[in-house]
UniProtKB/TrEMBL annotation:
Keywords: Cytoplasm, Nucleus. The keyword Cytoplasm applies. Residues 15-337 form the RSE1/DDB1/CPSF1 first beta-propeller domain. This is DNA damage-binding protein 1. Pathway: Protein modification; protein ubiquitination. Residues 783-1096 form the RSE1/DDB1/CPSF1 C-terminal domain. It is found in: Cytoplasm; Nucleus. It holds the Pfam family Beta-prop_RSE1_2nd. Residues 390-702 form the RSE1/DDB1/CPSF1 second beta-propeller domain. Belongs to the DDB1 family.
Length: 1136
């Protein structure tokens, strides 16, 4: 059977933890950020943050902290993962080194119900509270395993737990908050390292009932700050130390999310809350009874940011705000306010997590994911596509354009555009946003232009060059001109120019002429013939380049391809001598060629008439090149152009499937462009159209700006509230979105309150006394169903539900015998005092065909429970309602009528449909497979998984194979085992076929892919399934044929054995499926992230690893040579 290949299309973007310190050097300031299973280390420099390294972690980072050991200047990084693995890392000689590592888990301990906390003493002792009744103390020394011991800790309901900085290395004082029957208390206890017990040192009884956060204050001040909803308390760590309470109007039912130290002395702290407010807490320091202490404190409002989960003061007023629910930010604190805020955003780091729902939509022939991301005020929709968008600024209807050339004449910006048509040339002057057809110098307009540009750089912008098929025309603003023509009346077919240095190479049939434009001392112009050479065949295409492909330096060589000998030559200047000749791997005529350098790697790229593109890595010093790599970029002859975007050079492939080629981690990336056809393109930077592209499809000429050049592009649509579910309706061109907003005292822009039309409704159910009490205390949140335009994302209509009613699911679907397409929304009435939702309803909406901003409520159906998932099954509605799965048919009266039900569930969380089969994901009973029997009008349970998996989502691989995602961060696959039924009525077992620890919570799965499978891929896959996680990553699981199974397992093992992770655990241990005490070895899955990590290595090191791959038992047709294996891995990387 096929094997599942699991890989990340987009890595985790949620910031779970961040720290600032001296990791890479004692004089360096580093920002260290944890995202999922990796840690990014950045260096603070005058130019901004610079990436130092990315540390892959075998496990999801749970927490981390920096510690400075005795007699050491730089700090070490302590990392703890979700599976209770710990490592202490240091940075030396450009490498991350593990000082010590080990497992922290106790075999018999019961995990803490309400708190995991890690705190580090100044001596390096680590204390972790993870289990009830004890605290684990961890001692470590470089080069040894982690040593630990447990200390008895019998305190109920601990809210926070921290070491106190007393300024003494051998005093281990711990502060913690706990509550009992008499209230909430703050206690200081000292750890006796000899008898390994905690002894009470002092106690502050009956602190604020909502106190929840402790902030240790550095010595010599010492003590702790206690944060509560309406107050802050300072308590000295001495026996009879000072107690300083503080209250402020800014503290009004505040829920703090994180804090950061500003001064090493501990006089200022930055605080953040669930409203995204940034507050500065300032301590007034003075002499007390036992030395320096806090006399008073003040709190100031600084501004608003994303809802922060970690916050770090870096230096010089710059602060990093790490967010789990929104985009992370780099901000600067200002001395004076701007619009009431003392902060300004310097940079934003996109975060698409946590992903609550997502759908795949095709737009302009390109697949894109639309996700429900974030929460509360940072809730948003994110449009994710594997491609680059061009946003249109202006358009001119001009058919037949074959060439566009920007001209900068006596100007600091482009002020003309020369447009070549099939039989003539037009000169368009740019006046603001207008274009005017004009005459310019002695430009020939009676024939098409092959090339045009000002030359000799911006200091000589009075000199212009035009190349047509008959001549090279060199002209100046003064009226002087010089013309060069090929001998014997030959026509120019190809040209390449280094404009700044006046170098021109023209081809006339089989002859190449190397020309040089010069200006004479008296102001005259001349074109010198430097060299000419006749080749054995007609020139198909050519290009001038140099080392680094730097347009500011003279060209040192050119590359050309010949018409019918299907060969390529590298020719040096000025003598036009061939230094390298290669037979091309295609017998199709080459149409375009470029020699370029991207990320310090030189490439030769050749496009062929059938839409294929071949490229080589090129060694410019030796004149040699590597293996040819091939990609398809269309079905008709492509043309390659250099374009600039944000001061970086890329390649634009003009074809019927346009592509922008850029580099990521020194690998070429081919990214689709969201236009259907491009015939020609150029970069333009005028006063009105700055840093944009001009493209033509043969019908019109479009001026547009380009998205950031990256492999995965993310567009954000802020909603200002939590977005829970999304559906797409092609017939009306709209999205349907379920949302929930929490009203704030601050001014907010809520999408649901900003609609063109608004309606409301509430469920008609019997009201009990409990619900009457609830109605006396209105809920803090309001739920809505919104309809948005698919292009602009404008909110057309918002339908608001009643108190305590929350929209939980939505789909767009069509019923049998009804031509209309409806939005169907499931809601639940969720009351604070009820553990189970007893009532909900299914609401059917119709978008008005004429005026899309009008949403009509067609039908309501009250049901006993919450419809947590909805799907269309053969024109009928199937719904997961609490512990049941129910099927409804749509009547002629436009009402839902119950047809049948299945009750064998605890809580059905998700449904997926394939043909007549329904996969049900249960909160505790794993997955079951139902089959709808149309003739009998009922559901039959065909098979089930008898393991106890706590499900979140599922998806069909095939009608008899299911992929499941469960709550303990695992993936698994099951398949119907038809070898024998387990019951007399013919029910089968869903037999587990794969186990895999993902390390992130898979929230949603869809059967689709962002990238079409390449035609020339050496390894084929099927059944692509994409999933979104709470950590903001997009992953993909595909099925690869069984003949590749041993091959992929062997490659994975060779890489895992060669690449040692800093956690010092085996790859199989990391990927082992774990659920409470149950442990399953990883099987049935290939770790695509590990396999493809070899592409980031030095090529010689990668090949050395692949030499170790064991080919025992492989299919005879599979590659065995390391270079060929590497090509297979490169093909795997192209699928996402």
């Amino acid at each position: 059977m096929p094997i599942s290949y699991c890989v990340s299309s987009k890595k985790a973007s949620v910031v779970s933890e961040s720290v600032v310190g001296n990791f890479t050097g004692h004089e360096h300031v580093n920002l260290i950020v944890a995202r999922g299973n990796r840690i990014d280390v950045q260096l603070v420099s005058p130019e901004g943050l610079k990436n130092v390294c990315e540390i892959p972690i075998y496990g999801q980072v749970l927490t981390m902290a920096l510690v400075r050991c005795k007699r050491e200047k730089r700090q070490s990084l302590v990392v703890v993962t979700e599976k209770w693995q710990m490592a202490v890392l240091t940075y030396r000689d450009g490498k991350v080194i593990t000082r010590t590592a080990g497992a922290l888990a106790d075999q018999s301990g019961r995990a803490s119900d309400n708190l995991f906390s890690l705190t580090i003493h100044r001596s390096g002792l680590v204390a972790i509270r993870a289990y009830e009744g004890s605290v684990k103390m961890i001692q470590w020394e470089p080069g040894t395993d982690v040593r630990s011991f447990n200390v008895r800790f019998d305190y109920p309901n601990v809210s926070d737990f921290k070491f106190v900085d007393t300024g003494i290395d051998d005093t281990y004082r711990i502060a913690f908050i706990y509550d009992d029957d008499h209230g909430k208390h703050l206690q200081f206890s000292d750890l006796n390292m000899h008898d390994k017990e905690l002894h009470t040192f002092s106690r502050q009884a009956s602190i604020a009932a909502d106190a929840s956060v402790l902030i240790p204050v550095p010595a010599p001040i010492s003590g702790v700050l206690v944060l509560a909803a309406n107050s802050i308390l300072y308590k000295s760590s001495d026996v009879n130390g000072d107690v300083v309470p503080y209250a402020s109007p800014l503290l009004d039912n505040t829920v703090f999310t994180c804090h950061g130290l500003v001064d090493p002395s501990g006089e200022r702290f930055i605080l953040s809350d669930t409203e995204g407010r940034l507050l500065m807490l300032i301590l007034n320091i003075g002499e007390g009874r036992s030395g320096i202490t806090v006399k008073d404190m003040r709190i100031d409002y600084l501004g608003e940011t994303s809802i922060a989960d970690s916050i770090n003061y870096i230096d010089a007023g710059v602060v990093f705000v790490g967010s789990r629910l929104g985009d992370s930010q780099l901000i600067r604190l200002m001395p004076s306010p701007n619009g009431g805020s003392y902060s300004v955003v310097l940079e934003t780091y996109s975060n698409i997590g946590p992903i609550r729902d997502m759908i795949m939509v095709e737009s302009d022939g390109q697949a894109q994911l639309v996700t429900c991301s974030g929460a509360e005020k940072d809730g948003s929709l994110r449009v994710i596509r594997n491609g680059i968008g061009i946003e249109e600024l202006a358009s001119v209807e001009l058919p037949g354009v074959i060439g566009i050339f920007p001209i900068r004449l006596n100007s600091t910006t482009d002020n003309y555009v020369i447009v070549s048509l099939a039989e003539e040339t037009h000169v368009l002057q740019i006046n603001g946003e207008e274009l005017e057809d004009v005459q310019l110098l002695q430009i020939c307009t009676e024939m098409p232009t092959i090339f045009a540009s000002t030359i000799f750089g911006p200091d000589n912008s009075e000199v212009l060059l035009q190349v047509t098929e008959k001549h090279v025309r060199f002209m100046a603003f003064s009226g002087l001109s010089k013309i060069w023509e090929p001998p014997n009346g030959e026509l120019i077919s190809k040209v390449s120019v280094n404009a700044i240095h006046g170098q021109i190479v023209v081809a006339a049939r089989d002859t190449v002429y190397f020309l040089l434009c010069v200006t004479e001392e008296m102001g005259g112009l001349d074109i010198n013939l430097v060299a000419e050479r006749k080749f054995e065949d007609e020139i198909a295409c050519l290009d001038i380049s140099n080392e680094g492909d730097d347009h500011t330096k003279p060209g040192t060589f050119m590359v050309l391809a010949l018409w019918s000998t299907f060969s390529m030559e590298v020719v040096q200047f000025p003598d036009l001598k061939t230094v390298c000749q290669t037979n091309l791997p295609s017998k199709i005529v080459p149409r375009s060629i470029v020699a370029t350098c991207i990320e310090e790697v030189h490439y030769l790229l050749i496009a062929f008439g059938d839409g294929a593109l071949v490229y080589y890595v090129f060694d410019i010093k030796t004149g040699t090149h590597g293996e040819a790599k091939k990609s398809s970029v269309g079905t008709r002859p492509p043309t390659l152009y250099r374009v600039r975007n944000k001061n970086r050079q890329h390649l634009f492939v003009c074809s019927d499937r346009p592509v922008i080629i850029f580099s990521s981690s020194k690998k070429l990336v081919f990214s689709n462009v969201n236009v259907k056809v491009v015939n020609t393109v150029c970069s333009l930077s005028s006063s009105s159209y700055c840093d944009c592209l001009v493209i033509s499809d043969g019908i019109s000429m479009v001026f547009g700006t380009v998205d950031d050049i990256q492999k995965i592009h993310v567009r954000s649509i802020p909603m200002g509230e939590s977005v829970l579910r999304i559906a797409y309706q092609r017939s009306s061109g709209t999205y349907g979105v379920c949302s929930s907003r929490t009203e704030s005292k601050r001014e907010r822009i809520y999408a649901s309150k900003n609609a063109i039309y608004t309606t409301n409704s509430r469920a008609k159910i019997q009201v009990t006394s409990t619900r009457n009490e609830a109605n006396d205390n209105p809920p803090k949140s309001t739920s809505s169903f919104m309809v948005l335009d698919q292009n602009t994302f404008q909110v057309l209509h918002s339908h608001e539900f009643g108190p305590f009613e929350t929209a939980l699911s939505c789909i767009s679907g069509q019923f049998t015998n009804d031509s209309k397409v409806y939005y169907i929304v499931g809601t639940g009435l969720i009351y604070p005092e009820e553990t189970d939702t007893k009532f909900g309803r299914i609401v059917v909406f119709e978008v008005d065909e004429v005026e899309r901003s009008k949403l009509r409520r067609v039908h309501d159906l009250v049901c006993r429970g919450s419809p947590l998932a909805l799907r269309i099954l053969n024109g009928k509605l199937v719904a997961a309602i609490n512990s049941s799965v129910r099927l409804f048919e749509w009547t002629m009266e436009k009402e839902l009528r119950l047809e049948c039900s299945n009750f064998n569930h605890i809580m059905a969380l998700d449904l997926k449909v394939m043909n007549e089969e329904v996969a049900v994901a249960d909160v505790m009973r794993s997955v079951s497979l139902l089959s709808y029997r149309m003739l009998e009008g009922n559901f039959e349970e065909v098979a089930k998984d008898w393991n106890s998996e706590w499900m979140v989502t599922c998806e069909f691989i095939t009608a008899e194979q299911i992929l499941g995602g469960e709550a303990h961060l695992n993936l698994f696959t099951v398949e119907v085992d038809k070898s024998r039924p387990i019951t007399d009525d013919g029910r089968y077992v869903l037999e587990p076929t794969g186990y895999y620890y993902l390390g992130e919570l898979p929230r949603v799965m869809v059967r689709s892919s962002l990238v079409a499978q390449p035609d020339d891929c050496s390894i084929q896959y099927s059944q692509p399934i994409m999933f979104g996680t709470n950590q903001g990553s997009i992953g993909m699981v595909v099925q690869i044929d069984d003949k590749w199974k041993k091959f992929l397992i062997a490659v994975e093992k060779a890489i895992a054995d060669s690449v040692k992770n800093c956690m010092h655990i085996e790859h199989t241990t990391y990927r082992s499926f774990i659920f409470q005490k149950r442990l399953e070895s990883p099987t049935g899955f290939i770790d695509g992230d590990l396999v493809e990590s070899i592409l980031d290595m030095d090529r010689s090191a990668a090949i050395a690893i692949l030499y170790k791959v064991s080919d025992k038992g492989w299919d005879a047709s599979l590659p065995r040579d390391p270079i060929e294996i590497l090509k297979v891995i490169e093909d795997l990387a192209r699928m996402h």
